[in-house]
Design brief:
Blueprint: E1 10-15, E2 20-28, H1 33-41, E3 51-61, H2 63-78, E4 83-86, H3 90-99, E5 106-108, H4 111-116
Helix pairs in contact: 1-2
Length: about 120
């Protein structure tokens, strides 16, 4: 809707038995990317279960958000933790595809599919 404000940025962490779930809402941009990076850094590196990053309610991603996603994936991979993106959001998918980064991530249509993928 024209003139409407973006959803407030929020990050929630849920430790599931089979995965860590990180739910992100709002815009992932230069203003919010540092908080997003800190949330990923706080994950327990000794865990071996995958991390599911639910981006379904992310309305916008800029280059800062992309850098944070790539850095987070690298950090998790070095700890042996796969990262699965739940990403039915058109803006996120479009940004990943246009940046050439879509093939770098395991992307699923829903949170449940991403959790089940491990």
């Amino acid at each position: 809707m024209p003139g409407s404000l973006p959803a407030p940025f929020a990050i929630d962490h849920h430790a599931l038995g089979e995965a860590d779930l990180i739910v992100v809402v709002g815009e992932l941009d230069i203003r919010t990317a540092p908080g997003f990076s800190r949330a990923l850094e706080r994950l327990d590196a000794s865990e071996e279960r995958p991390v599911v990053l639910d981006l379904c309610d992310v309305s916008f991603v800029d280059s800062s958000g992309l850098r944070a996603l790539v850095a987070g994936q690298q950090t998790l991979a070095s700890a042996g933790r796969p990262l699965h993106l739940a990403c039915s959001s058109a803006p996120v998918r479009r940004t990943l595809e246009r940046s050439g980064l879509a093939d770098r991530f395991s992307i699923f249509e829903s949170r449940d599919q991403a959790i089940a993928a491990h």
